[in-house]
Design goal:
The chain has 293 residues and is an alpha+beta fold. 51% of the residues lie in helices and 20% in strands. Helix 2 (15-45) packs across helix 3 and helix 4 (87-119) crosses helix 5 (129-162).
Length: 293
């Protein structure tokens, strides 16, 4: 199995901070450019004497609220994933979500602008709400779509770099065996992993632990992470229950890889695995785990 590139391994260690930094940089640049454009447009039409700080405040408050709403868009996309097989139900839900996105965006930036103008000794005039909401929605529906596209593109890139696993298809029955007695259900012993145009076979026994990640489960195998499209509950139904056990709402472990159960004062526990990783064990599953071990 080809080792992960050093840069990607280092990136995964700081992934969350990098994702936050990306959106901060993008929204800051957008606010800066839009401030200049707004100031130039209003100066050209000479609608009124514009103070320099006003377009900066408008765009900054808008960017702040959009940044706060991005985690909600990520959560909603996980709840209603945008895929070819889910478009019929997902698109109407995301259209409704764009309306909620616009409403929260407008309400949030209105409150921030009211506070900002008050600090500057001025009064903020938003204008008629019905007109402004319609105007802002024409912009916000595009913003929502671009955020959604960025999330999907980023996830697609991570899948290609991390590797996506799938359960191997069951072997075709032998000719003439269609009417034979049904065979006992067999559990998959290997999974196929596609990574950077290469394919690998992963043994189920080598999976150290499993973690729920939205519409996927992450498989930790020999120091590598792979994603498989399934819920944690669905995936555990395909694994050997004598070997794999759920220890947390979003984690399951291979008992063969557990080296130590460390009790915590909260009643929970921390599991130490052979690869040096630690996995949380909630008190809800701790007693059952102790009996199994």
């Amino acid at each position: 199995m080809a080792p992960a590139t050093d840069w990607f391994t280092r990136y995964l260690a700081v992934r969350r901070r990098a994702e936050v930094a990306f959106w901060v940089i993008v929204l800051s640049l957008q606010a800066g450019f839009n401030s200049v454009v707004t100031w130039m447009d209003l100066e050209r039409v000479a609608a009124r004497q514009l103070q320099t700080w006003e377009p900066v405040m408008w765009e900054a408050t808008s960017a702040i609220v959009i940044g706060a709403l991005i985690p909600l868009v990520v959560w909603f996309e996980r709840r209603f994933p945008v895929r070819w097989d889910t478009l019929r139900t997902a698109l109407p839900m995301h259209l409704l979500a764009s309306c909620a996105f616009c409403t929260l965006h407008v309400a949030g930036m209105w409150l921030l602008r009211q506070a900002g103008y008050a600090l500057m000794g001025e009064r903020y005039d938003f204008g008629p709400w019905s007109v402004q909401l319609a105007y802002e929605y024409l912009k916000d529906v595009r913003t929502y779509a671009m955020i959604l596209a960025a999330i999907l593109s980023y996830r697609f890139l991570l899948l290609r770099l991390t590797g996506e696993a799938r359960v191997l298809d069951a072997p075709e029955p032998a000719p003439g065996a269609a009417e034979a007695a049904p065979q006992p259900e067999t559990r998959p012993t290997r999974f196929l992993v596609r990574k950077l145009r290469r394919e690998f076979l992963v043994a189920a026994a080598d999976i150290a632990w499993v973690q729920a990640q939205g519409n996927y489960v992450g498989l930790r195998v020999n120091g590598h992470d792979y994603l498989l499209r399934a819920t944690l509950t669905e995936f555990l139904q395909q694994l050997d229950p004598e070997r794999f056990v759920r220890v947390h709402r979003s984690h399951a472990v291979n008992l063969d890889h557990v080296t130590e159960i460390e009790p915590l004062d909260s009643g929970d526990a921390r599991l130490h695995l052979r690869d040096g990783a630690t996995v949380p064990c909630s008190r809800r599953y701790r007693d059952a785990l102790g009996q199994r071990v």
